[in-house]
Amino acid sequence: MNRVTQNLLLTMLGCAVLRISAFSSTYLNYVKPGFRPFLIAAGAVLVVLGLAGLLQAFRSRGSSGQEEPRDHGDHGGHRDHGGPGDHEGHEEHEGHGDHGDHGGHGHDHSRGPRVAWLMFLPVFAIFLVAPPALGSFAAARSDTPPPRGQALSSFTPLTGKGPVDMPIGEFIGRAWDDGERSLTGREVRLTGFVVPSKRKGQWYVTRMQIACCAADAFPLKVAVKGLQAPPENAWVEVVGTWIPQTFGEMPNGVVYPELAGTDLARVDAPAEPYE
């Protein structure tokens, strides 16, 4: 891979980063919103460096193409002054030429391996088919409950009438850690995507939570009962009331809080898919 190709790749990578961060909200599929300024700055730097490298490479090619070929006819005139030593000088000159050919043909490092072109594939993927946010495929394969250390330590009273819009993470925190049991008898509205359950008569409304990026995501699940399961991975708003658990302490293993569903609506995926 020569210098032009390397700088072209750098420029395209910068354009791809700017496309998903500065000109769309696609970056929210991979990182938290606070990373947007850093992505825009990084993309701009990559574009500037790539364009500067391309300009320098083209200037170098232009200046080298304007060089006049050397006149090797002087060697013939030089031999007129040599006498008997001309043959040796000629042999030395040929040997020097052979050495140059060997360096040119045997040790040409201006080209890299062809496999380096595979580095363009991730860039083309971002331009053509940007990977979506994590969904039911990732959530269904994780049976790890959310870390208890991230649960809320104190909860404000639920006021007003009608269903309370609530993040799934807060619902889980109130269900397990609220000594006041503020969810009792209150209708809540949860928004998430559908994950099938192995247990009959229930499914999960789910939201992925990230600390930094999609690489550290884990699912927040609430088991929904009393409503027919929508298609897998569909985004929904589900209204219902909390079903208090009958056990006294949190048992070992994975136990998700339960919701008695009363209403269900299909919605579009939010611009910010993670909690």
From TrEMBL:
Chain spans, region Disordered: 62-109, 140-159
Keywords: Membrane, Transmembrane, Transmembrane helix
Keyword Transmembrane: yes
Family annotation (InterPro entries): DUF1980 (IPR015402), DUF1980_C (IPR048447)
Biased amino acid composition, Basic and acidic residues: 67-109
Domain of life where this protein originates: Bacteria
Membrane-spanning intervals of the chain: 38-58, 115-134
Domain spans labelled DUF1980: 183-274
Name of protein: TIGR03943 family protein
Organism: Streptosporangium carneum
